[in-house]
Specification:
- With 259 residues, the protein is mostly beta strands.
- It is 6% helix and 27% strand.
- The strands form three sheets. Strands 4, 6, 7, 8, 10, 11 and 13 form a seven-stranded antiparallel beta sheet that branches. Strands 1-2-3-9 form a four-stranded antiparallel beta sheet.
- Strand 7 and strand 8 form a beta hairpin.
Length: 259
């Protein structure tokens, strides 16, 4: 007779509260102005600290997500490090049946085991204290082939240094992507994963936001290279919010008709 109450109690303990995300327009300047409720996950301090006491060179911290009527905003705590070679990866699934199973940047990262496979991937070769090189690129999966679509974000930039407008100069990195370019209207159940990796074709996820069980850096040790593809295991869900466009329209052209 006690089985049912105990089962209900266990389920209540295991249940996680729903996140109450709020629409926001974020100023992309490297200053964290995300509302606390727009925290996607706090993944701090789950990698090796090997650059001095309390320094976590491979660690993702708090990651935020929100949207307004036009843009998806991502904010990422990631410290400038003692390493001269660090990359950030961000994958987006927009609820499609397909998606890529390989890594468009040539890393040992795969998506064969996740139910929602990435439609888009952003890579940011992030500048560090010892290496100021920067390269930002946006890839789209097209029938199993990754294509560079960076010009969708800014035709005059494209992929390259500051190609996507990611603020990289501080420890809080943030950027925005047009919802229209992603093909993610209001109500889209988007799935996201973020990871830290390095340059090279033998590199896997040193830290992962959702797929913690396969990340290659732990508290006591780090595996820097791998011959096998590391298959990611999960992604976070974010539903694109209904936000009111408060920006007034602007006149860009006037032309007489029926004249």
């Amino acid at each position: 007779r006690l089985l049912a109450p105990l089962l209900l109690l266990a389920l209540a303990v295991l249940a996680t509260p729903a996140r109450a995300f709020t629409p926001q327009t974020i100023t992309v300047d490297g200053v964290n102005d995300f509302l606390p409720g727009n925290l996607l996950d706090d993944d701090s301090f789950d990698t090796q600290s090997n650059c001095g006491t309390g320094i976590y060179p491979m660690d993702l911290g708090k990651v935020y997500v929100t949207n307004d009527a036009n843009f998806l905003y991502i904010g990422i705590e990631f410290a400038k490090t003692c390493y001269g070679d660090m990359n950030l990866g961000i994958a987006f699934d927009i609820g499609t049946a397909g998606g890529g199973t390989t890594d468009p940047f040539g890393r040992k990262i795969g998506w064969a085991n996740v139910p929602f496979k990435p439609d888009w991937v952003v890579y940011d070769v992030t500048p560090t204290n010892s290496n100021t090189f920067n390269y930002e690129v946006l890839y789209k999966d097209t029938l199993g082939t990754w294509q560079n679509r960076s010009t969708l974000i800014n035709p005059s930039w494209g992929s390259g240094s500051n190609g996507l407008g990611i603020v990289d100069s501080v420890n809080f990195k943030e950027f925005k992507l047009p919802l229209s370019a992603l093909g993610a209207p209001i109500g889209t159940n988007m799935h996201l994963e973020l990871w830290v990796t390095q340059e090279g074709t033998t590199k896997g996820p040193l830290d992962a936001l959702s797929s913690d069980n396969v990340q290659m850096s732990r508290f006591a040790s780090t595996t820097y290279d791998t011959a096998a593809v590391v298959q990611m295991t999960s992604m976070f869900t974010y539903t694109v919010l209904n936000a009111v466009d408060i920006a007034p329209p602007t006149v860009t052209q006037v032309q007489a008709v029926n004249f």
